[in-house]
Design goal:
Distance between the termini: 25 Å
Number of strands: 0
Radius of gyration: 13 Å
Number of domains: 1
Number of helices: 4
Shape: globular
Order of helices and strands: HHHH
């Protein structure tokens, strides 16, 4: 199993864009913080900020297109 260390991206990715996607996704969650993530989960807050992030960064278009 590959564990993710958000402070050290040492895993090899097939291209530079995939690395950018991972780095920006990690940055999104690090900025939000563990406390806020847990509060939102317990309060069942809709995660529209993450969906907007995915749209703006074109993550699905990058990762799900051959």
């Amino acid at each position: 199993m590959i564990l993710l260390n958000p402070r050290k991206l040492s895993r090899q990715y097939p291209d530079g864009r995939s690395l950018e996607v991972m780095a920006s996704t990690i940055d999104f969650f690090e900025k939000k913080g563990k406390k806020r993530l847990k509060e939102d989960a317990h309060q069942r807050v809709w995660y529209d900020d993450f969906l907007k992030f995915v749209k703006d960064e074109k993550i699905f278009a990058t990762l799900l297109t051959p």
